[in-house]
Design a protein that fits this description.
By secondary structure, this protein is α/β, with parallel strands linked by helices. 35% of the residues lie in helices and 15% in strands. The protein starts with a helix and ends in a 9-residue tail after the last strand. Bound molecules: zinc ion (2 copies).
Length: 238
Amino acid sequence: MWWAELIDALFPRLCRLCRAPAADGFACEEHRWVREENPARCGRCAALLGRGLPDGMTCASCLRRPPPFSRVVACLDYETLRPWVIALKHRGRRDLASPLGARLGRALQGESGPACLVPIPLHPLRHLERGYDQAALLAEAAGRELGWPVVRALERTRSTPPQGSPGAVSRRANVHGAFALDSSGRRGLAGRTAWIVDDVVTSGATAAEAARVLRRAGAGGVAVACLARAGMALSSVR
Ligand SMILES: [Zn+2]
Ligand SMILES: [Zn+2]
């Protein structure tokens, strides 16, 4: 079709991340969003399960201590999305929030409502440093895709140290009391499932702490949506 060629010439199909030609109009060969071969993940927290375990099984960690959210929806695993997440968070690529947030929104399509999106807030100091709050931008783009409201119900009460690789227990201690309910947030939560939005979920401790606050605030249910899920289920780490 001549007009399709014309559109391609006028708006070349480039990778959103590196601007190399992109056959699918979103990502080049190197940055393609490919699913891992054996994506067996916990049905509750979406942590990668060990080899041979069935997809959707509840991991030992969730069985022992059920998280305060019903489940985690992730676009992809962290290994695949690492360059995108690093660019968004640490290389000033604010422009990526919109296409990535739209993808996150599409991952939530089909979820039953009523629902709202609640971004994990960035500490004001880090916001100042970075100039933008990537989780809030992702939530806004996902909200546009879904027609769901974004409710900024949470605020940081203190800055938590960056989460390197401490064990799950110290992570819990690390984020305990890190969030409070924003004075304007409560109204938007009543009767809705609150989808916590973050760029990456690693141990799930941050999301769990946020979920506890949202449940106390009267959210109808709490679930988690993230671009990338990192980390193995504890039961499958040897
Ligand atoms: Zn690329
Ligand atoms: Zn789990």
